Every structure is written in structure tokens, then in C-alpha cells.
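Dataset card, provenance and construction

Sequences and ligand SMILES were collected as paired inputs. For each pair, a complete structure of the chain with the small molecule in place was predicted and serialized as C-alpha cells. The example below shows a pair involving pyridoxal-5'-phosphate. Curators did not alter the output after generation; any descriptive sentences attached to a record were derived from the structure itself.
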Amino acid sequence: MSMLDFEISRSERPTPAAEREAVLADPGWGQHFTDHMVTIRYAAGKGWYDARLEPYGPIPMDPASQVFHYSQELFEGLKAYRQADGTIVTFRPYANAARMNRSARRMAMPEIPEQLFVDALELLVGTDREWVPTTDGYSLYLRPFMFATTRALGVNQPADEYMFVVIASPSGNYYARGIRPVSVWLSRDYTRAAPGGTGEAKTGGNYAASFAGQAQAVRNGCDQVVWLDAVEHRWVEEVGSMNLFFVYGAGDRPRLLTPALTGTLLPGITRDSMLKLAPDLGLPVEEGKISVDEWQAGCASGEITEVFGCGTAAVISPVGQVKGPDREWSIGDGEPGEISMRLREELIGIQYGARPDPYGWVHKIV
Ligand SMILES: *Cc1c(COP(=O)(O)O)cnc(C)c1O
């Protein structure tokens, strides 16, 4: 355990086993929460203190807390998996800790020691281990987040008091009815992130700013929105809240391209894992640039055979249809692509322990 001792107060009314089992049989996504949460406080000059494991429940907040007014908030997302032998693991939790600290620097928030972050996850998952589903493809989604609690409306400086919290939510298969390719909308009216902004930080404000674009995608009959660069509105950056990969599958030497991290993309840990796994499967990957025109032309010529989004929640989500105000085209034949599915199987195999873990990504909890 870390430099901080956690004060443990267990729930006196944990969810009865039968009720928990009913939830785990059909957990959906992000609607049910486990019996406990972790909270840790921070004050400038004092550092992190008051680490607790406590029953899941409301957090009393002063209405003048800075997060409500100026959105000083950030979050992370990762999963705990139950492997075949009963071992519970998380996937690359130190990468999430490091990313949270990069987000914290951008948002003028305090960094948290990586080990304290991982200890908090371990304590919560260890305590609520019965909430880690046993069903194939299900997991316990972990949501660490941090926000400013300073009671002040002064706008000229970051807060000096913060709270770090971890909650956990059992999650089913993102694709309850089998994987099907999604349709995506090329947003011309909205951008997600601009140079010098907060696009590479995992902060709630980026999501708040994206909902109008997502709603527009849905109004246009699409599942997700494609975010283009804010300057030229030409370069493809992300889809929804996922990073994108393009498969150049024609010929006998398939290869992948993913948009480079320019500062306006969120550096996904799934993306990073793909960059390492794909070459091991004989698929070279380039981090580069692709414009909407190149995407459309590549599909028309048959050079681009598959496109997928990737992130912790959905793992890999094939893209089948692209629509914009002035164009529309499809990718592949409406079925998930072979290379996308091979990469998905490989990553899931490592997470659930069905495949070797050559990079030591899997972190054993209990
Ligand atoms: C979290 C997130 C991703 C995916 O990151 P993972 O670490 O792979 O889950 C991609 N894009 C955005 C905007 C995100 O917030």
C-alpha cells in the first residue's frame, strides 16, 4: 500500500447477493454502481490526505465549489476483467495514472502519485470483487475522476482544494446484439478540440462541448460524429470518443494508419496498444494524417478496406458508413472487417488471459 493509509468504512447495507446477480446478468452500461467508492482529498500546501474507502453515495458539495462554475474536472476510464482462473486484473492502470497526470497539468490541477492512483483502484476492486462479472466479455468499468472543491468564485486562478474519487460500474458487452459497423457523421458545424485547447486532456468539458455535434449526427441518421481538425476542417481526428484506425487492406501487405497525436487528439490507451499489437500480427502501422477526401477516395479505389474506432468501452468499433452534408459513402460490405476483428480478439485475449501478455500490460488485483 502507498504513502497514505486508507480509512476503511464498509457499507452496512451492501446489495443483497440475489439483487447483485440480477444486475450482473444484464448490467447495461454505466447505470449500476458497486457498494463502495474511494475518496481522497487534496489541499495546496498539504498534498493528498484523508484517503477513504466508504459506501457508495452522494458527495456533499458547497454550491460555490469551483468545479460547478469553471469546470476544473478530469477523469479516466479503465476496466477490471475476470480471467478464466478467477484472477481479477486491470489493463495498463499505470498508463491511466500517467495520462490523468498529463490531463492534470493541462487543467492546472494537482498530480496524484501513480501508486496512490493504482492503490485506490486495487482497494475498490478488491473490496467489491463480487461485482466483477463472470460472463464472457463483461467487465467492471472503473471511473477515477478529480474535481475542484475550493469554495470561491474568483476566476483568475485554479482552485487549491480538490477531491479524487473512484467509482465502479459493472458493464456488459458494448454490443449486446453482436458487433455491427456504425455510421458516422462528418461534422462541419462543430469541432471537438482546437490547437492549444484541452483536446488531449480527458476533461468533462470536452464532452459537454461534443454533445451538440453528437446530437446533430443522430439527427442525420448516424450513430457517431467524426471530429475534423478545427483549422482546415479537413483532417480526420477522432470518432465520438474513440481514436480511429484506417486499414489499407488491398494487396498482400495490409497496413494501418491512425491520425498522429497533434495535441487535439486524446491519446487513447487502446490506440497505443494497437500501435504495439498490430506490428506483432504482421500489420505495420503509421501515425500520420488523412483528409476526408483521401478517406473517400481510398474507399472508392478499394485501397481502404476497413475503418474502426477504438477505446476502452467498445474496444473496437467498425465504421461502415460515412455521411456528411455533401457526400456519403460506405466502407466494406456491412460486416465487421477481418483485420479489425483479429486485432479485437488479440486485445481481448490479453485482457481476459486467453492469450500471452508479451508487454506485461495485465495488472493482477486479486
Ligand atoms: C477516453 C477517450 C478515448 C479512448 O481512450 P482509451 O484510453 O483507449 O479508452 C478516445 N478519445 C476520447 C475523446 C476519449 O475521451
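Derived descriptions for this record:
The pocket of pyridoxal-5'-phosphate is lined by residues 77, 202, 238, 241-243, 266, 268-271, 311-312 (CB under 6 Å).
The chain has a mean pLDDT of 95.
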